[in-house]
Design goal:
About 35% of the residues lie in helices and about 15% in strands. It is built from 16 helices and 16 strands. The strands form three sheets. It has an eight-stranded mixed sheet with strand order 10-9-8-5-4-3-1-11. α3 links the parallel β3 and β4. α2 crosses α3 and α2 runs parallel beside α10.
Length: about 475
């Protein structure tokens, strides 16, 4: 006799299996991204589709966006780099192949790299990022090498190919280039087939969607619905980056980038259908370090290529890394207790607030879950939506220039206007320290600043500060 329902114990085991996979993965777990680091290794230069938002440049050390890398590596040198970095940054937990082309358009290099990583760094999680065109033919290889996190970029589920043809000029399929709507339909068919095969094999799938105003901004909600049907674990809605200097088709033809507010609207439209990733930084193909930082310039080829495998294994030191990860987990447990579980993921306004009124709160942090960064040093802000009942994490917002560049680069100018524009819809800023001059400037956009929560846990501080500044006890009693 069989039963079609899943027992509670089976469901608990399934959920625990997923939690084990994402616990220290900074991309798949928002709670992990301030504690664990990732490395992208650029072993996949070729790509089999053309995207209007992509331009794969080399030697672009000042740009932080997908498709950019300062050098290409062969599998052996890539693994040497991982061992060296993993010894120096012991909180490294994940290695991914994300380009600068497509991992599965370079299958020999990709899977040779993973084979070596299994031998030399068995404690690391392995990830692939792909456009999905060749995904179905490599699912068995992905399983074979224990790659249990796969990211697929899927920007439209329009079966006609109309929307896709505005994003992808061509795909390389069956040894020839296919153009227009036919290309878009082939790509979508392969993406959906490959994603279904992955989820059926128990592999966690994250789907990236680039939000392109006027092209697919109305389509992403349909993408989210389809992803839910396919049991995709996480949906990441990323703003289009289209500055002319990036040299992309969109950038050179005046396609506007997506604003923070447009991303938030898309998240709201998709959030009821899919679990969202809100902490993505759209990393380079050779990114190193915590999400939100890029230390790739510290690990140039000359520092690891000449070292022997024996030297690198000593540097990597799996035992010391394990001890570091245990310390991180102890700190995370302490933070969880201090934060008092005030955060809800995918929450509605009704869940956050007793009167449906919420506020946007910005936070400056250098990581590790506390408010530990001066306003003057911040080049990004974590954004939370908060009410009198709970809070949720919404997104991060970047600025190109920190308010204070430091004494060595100080020219007497303080770039506050970009920051004011970035935070124009935010109600409160929590930071470790802020001077009177920037406070005065931020008051002009009605932004309250508060540095009294310095070095305190972020989530609890956001909740308490929101109640202090916006929800009086009398108002709460009325509600």
């Amino acid at each position: 006799m069989s039963c079609s329902c899943t027992s509670s114990s089976t469901q608990e085991n399934l959920e625990q299996n997923i939690m084990d996979k994402i616990n220290n993965h900074p991309c798949y777990s928002e709670g992990a991204h301030q504690h664990y680091a990732r490395i992208h290794i650029a072993v996949a230069p070729a790509c089999n589709i053309q995207c209007n938002y992509c331009n794969r440049k080399f030697d672009c050390s000042n740009e932080s966006r997908p498709g950019v890398t300062s050098s290409k590596l062969n599998p052996q040198d890539a693994v040497k780099k991982v061992l060296f970095v993993g010894g120096k940054i012991q909180q490294l937990s994940v290695v991914g192949i994300a380009g600068p082309g497509d991992a599965l358009a370079n299958p020999k290099k990709t899977f040779e790299t993973f084979k070596l990583l299994q031998e030399k760094a068995p404690d690391l999680k392995l990830c692939i990022s792909t456009n999905g065109l060749r995904l179905p033919e490599f699912v068995d290889e992905i399983v074979k090498y224990n790659v249990d996190h796969v990211t697929v970029t899927i920007n439209s589920v329009d079966q006609t190919g109309e929307i896709g043809s505005k994003i992808y000029p061509w795909v390389h399929w069956n040894h020839k280039k296919i153009f227009g709507k036919q290309a878009a339909k082939i790509l979508l068919e392969q993406q959906l087939k490959g994603i279904k095969m992955l989820t059926q094999r128990g592999i966690l799938v994250k789907a990236n969607s680039v939000l392109i105003p006027g092209v697919n901004d109305k389509e992403v909600a349909n993408v989210a619905k389809k992803l839910k049907e396919l049991n995709v674990f996480l949906h990441n809605i990323m703003p289009l980056l289209s500055k002319p200097e990036f040299g992309t088709y969109y950038g050179l033809n005046g396609q506007k980038s997506a604003t923070d507010q447009e991303v938030m609207q898309a998240q709201e439209a998709c959030g009821m259908d899919m679990k969202l990733m809100a902490h993505c930084r759209q990393c380079r193909a050779d990114a190193v370090g915590l999400i939100g930082e890029d230390r790739s310039n510290e690990y140039t080829d000359d520092v690891f290529k000449t070292k022997s495998w024996e030297e690198l294994e000593d540097i990597y030191n799996i035992k010391a890394r394990k001890q570091r990860h245990e310390l991180i987990e102890n700190w995370r447990k302490a933070l969880e207790g201090a934060n008092e579980r005030v955060k809800i993921e995918q929450a509605s306004k009704e869940q956050l607030s007793s009167n449906n009124q919420t506020k946007l709160i910005a936070v400056t942090t250098a990581g590790e879950g506390t408010i530990n960064l001066h306003f003057g040093s911040a080049t990004e802000f974590l954004i939370y939506e908060a009410g009198d009942k709970a809070i949720k994490f919404v997104m991060h917002r970047k600025v190109e220039n920190a308010y204070c560049k430091g004494p060595e680069d100080c020219d007497g100018s303080y770039p506050i206007e970009e920051i004011k524009n970035t935070l124009k819809d935010v109600d409160l800023l929590l930071t470790e320290k802020i001077g009177e001059c920037p406070q005065d400037e931020l008051r002009k956009i009605d932004l309250i600043t508060d540095d009294s929560y310095a070095l305190q846990p972020i989530e609890k501080s956001v909740f308490e500060a929101t109640k202090k500044h916006f929800f009086s006890q009398k108002e709460l009693e009325v509600n």
